[in-house]
Design goal:
The chain has 180 residues and is mainly alpha-helical. It contains seven helices and four strands, in the order ααββαααββαα. The chain has helices spanning 2-5, 37-53, 81-91, 94-106, 110-119, 153-161, 166-178; strands at 57-59, 66-68, 137-140, 147-151.
Length: 180
């Protein structure tokens, strides 16, 4: 009789979009309100967004000025748009980004690239043209990974299209000479 009068006491995850019964989640304490860390984070983010929508002005953590909410890229961010841009520019440079790519793809540093570039006179190793807008490409053997030289975009692509086959490249050169 007592059971029929008691309302359903099943505890549910308090994240709005989740309906998991907390009793079914192993290892949770009785005081837990969320079924998982992602649910807790999502609800926290949702609450921040809702609170930010009500704001008309806010203190920027960078310039320490109270600014209208329109000056922030997103109202829940702690920095105004101009401070965010300045912070991004401080950490991102083309050289830093390119250095990371060189290290990841070829295992070489930006200083090693610059040394090779100086040794080649700043020109493509094949056609001897100077690079126009872009840097010279790092030519490497795709089987061994060994770095050969620095090439312009056109020469690098030509070798790639010829599948790095010297016989194919010689045949292409002969073909062009025959049909001049």
């Amino acid at each position: 009789m007592q059971e029929a009068l008691t309302p359903e006491l099943a505890r549910r995850c308090t994240f709005e979009e989740c309906n998991v019964d907390l009793a079914t989640v192993p290892g949770l304490k009785d005081t837990e309100r969320y079924c998982s860390a992602p649910c807790r984070r999502r609800q926290y983010t949702l609450n921040r967004h809702r609170a930010a929508e009500k704001l008309t002005s806010k203190l920027c953590g960078g310039c320490k000025e109270v600014l209208p909410i329109e000056k922030f890229k997103q109202p829940w961010r702690h920095y105004c748009a101009s401070c965010s841009r300045a912070d991004s520019k401080k950490y991102y440079t083309k050289d830093r980004s390119y250095a990371a790519c060189l290290k990841f793809h070829y295992g070489m540093t930006l200083e090693e690239y610059e040394e090779r570039l100086a040794a080649q006179g700043g020109r493509c190793a094949i056609c001897r043209d100077e690079p126009t807008k872009k840097r010279l490409h790092v030519d490497h053997n795709h089987q061994t990974g060994a770095i050969r030289d620095l090439l312009c975009e056109w020469c690098n692509h030509a070798i790639g299209k010829a599948r790095e086959d010297p016989a194919r490249l010689r045949a292409m050169a002969e073909y062009l000479e025959r049909h001049q």
